[in-house]
Write a structure and sequence with these properties.
alpha+beta
Length: 377
């Protein structure tokens, strides 16, 4: 049974975070809104404060979504800037974006317009949270609005992920897929500095990074709307050495390869999308063929670049890969992210598969932790 969720300030992360252990963090945030509303009810009383918690959790859902929205916004612009630096004209880049916006059209036929859709989503969330706080919304009336919020973000998220994947495919088609590494490195450098250099074990002992690492995993993957219902449900399995978070499917790369079951559209590997998977083996894509170009960023951001900087991965990814059809076991495979509790527990082949070897472990002043704390701080 899940615990009674609330939000608490985290000095480590610099914002309010959801309370609860890791199994509880695997529950979608909008489900936590529903729980709080049911606990509060429609009448003023001793449990009225749970309505305020429900409203804050609506805000928290938008904070989760914002993290992914900004990544897509900044990276897509960065990829286009990289293309400009390679001599691709403004007209060619604009034409490709226009083509992709039409290809990513909404069910009513309107082309993708991320900024306008995000603005509409924010206004909807604001009205919803305000209605919950003010008791202007009864519990039953809030439910369809929660569904609309979830669906509105899913539609925008999926199309923005596809837009970015389409730009990456354009890079590969124009310059060859090997140049994707150069493109990714140029665009991702500021992101690595801001989001992942905090895990540098030369500065912070590995055991002290675990809580932040796990919370960011859960927050980001809830926002990617993982799970068979595409609501942000995550799988989680923990033992003495590691925590494994699984996505069935991942709402970005996994959905891209498998196809969109909710909207009834096909794999983005196939026509009319043809967003591409690796045809050769590269250190930046786990030395596997069939890795979708979008998924390769996880290899670089979570494994290869951290190994280059301070010797160790932040998380270890076991991705699906294109098996030739949407029904192939390799394509349908769940993606997993593993956070190891000690550096010693990370297998040697994690380093080898991206062209590295296990470094000599650093000397740290604190002993390795053998358990994960139940609460993020």
């Amino acid at each position: 049974m899940s615990s009674e969720t609330h939000l608490e300030w985290s000095d480590a992360i610099g914002k309010r975070v959801r309370s609860g252990g890791w199994a509880d963090q695997a529950i979608p945030t909008l489900d936590k809104v529903r729980e709080a509303l049911l606990e509060a009810g429609d009448e003023f009383g001793l449990r009225a404060g749970r309505r305020e918690v429900a409203a804050q959790l609506v805000d928290s859902f938008m904070e989760e979504a914002k993290v992914v929205y900004l990544i897509y916004k900044v990276w897509t612009a960065g990829f286009l800037d990289w293309l400009a630096g390679q001599g691709v004209s403004d007209a060619e880049r604009a034409a490709e974006i226009d083509r992709l916006r039409i290809l990513m059209a909404y069910p009513d036929g309107s082309p993708l317009d991320p900024e306008a859709r995000w603005s509409d989503l924010g206004a909807h969330a604001g009205r919803l949270a305000s209605g919950i706080r003010s008791y202007d919304l009864r519990v039953a009336a809030a439910e369809p609005l929660l569904r609309d919020l979830s669906e509105g973000w899913r539609r925008l998220h999926d199309r923005y992920a596809d837009l970015m994947a389409g730009v990456l495919a354009f890079v590969a088609q124009r310059f060859g897929e090997a140049r994707l590494e150069d493109c990714y490195r140029a665009v991702m450098e500021p992101y690595i500095q801001e989001r992942y250099m905090v895990f540098d074990t030369r500065v912070t002992p590995y055991p002290e990074t675990l809580e932040r690492n796990m919370y960011l995993v859960m927050e980001a993957m809830r926002a990617h709307m993982c799970g068979p219902e595409r609501d942000g449900t995550l799988g989680i399995d923990e033992d003495d050495d590691k925590v494994v978070v699984s996505f069935a499917p991942c709402g970005s790369g996994g959905r891209s390869m498998q196809g969109d079951d909710i909207e009834g559209t096909g794999s983005r590997v196939l026509a009319p999308y043809e967003f591409g998977v690796t045809g050769e083996k590269y250190d930046w894509a786990w030395n596997q063929e069939g890795i979708c170009y979008y998924c390769a960023h996880c290899c670089l951001a979570l494994e290869k670049l951290p190994m280059e900087r301070w010797g160790h991965p932040v998380r270890v990814v076991d991705p699906p890969r294109w098996g030739g059809s949407t029904d192939a076991p390799e394509t349908r495979k769940q993606c997993t992210w593993t956070v190891f509790k000690t550096l010693e527990a990370i297998p040697d082949d994690v380093y080898r598969r991206v062209g590295h070897t296990r470094p000599q472990l650093p000397v740290i002043d604190t002993p390795p932790r053998t358990d994960m704390p139940p609460q993020p701080t």
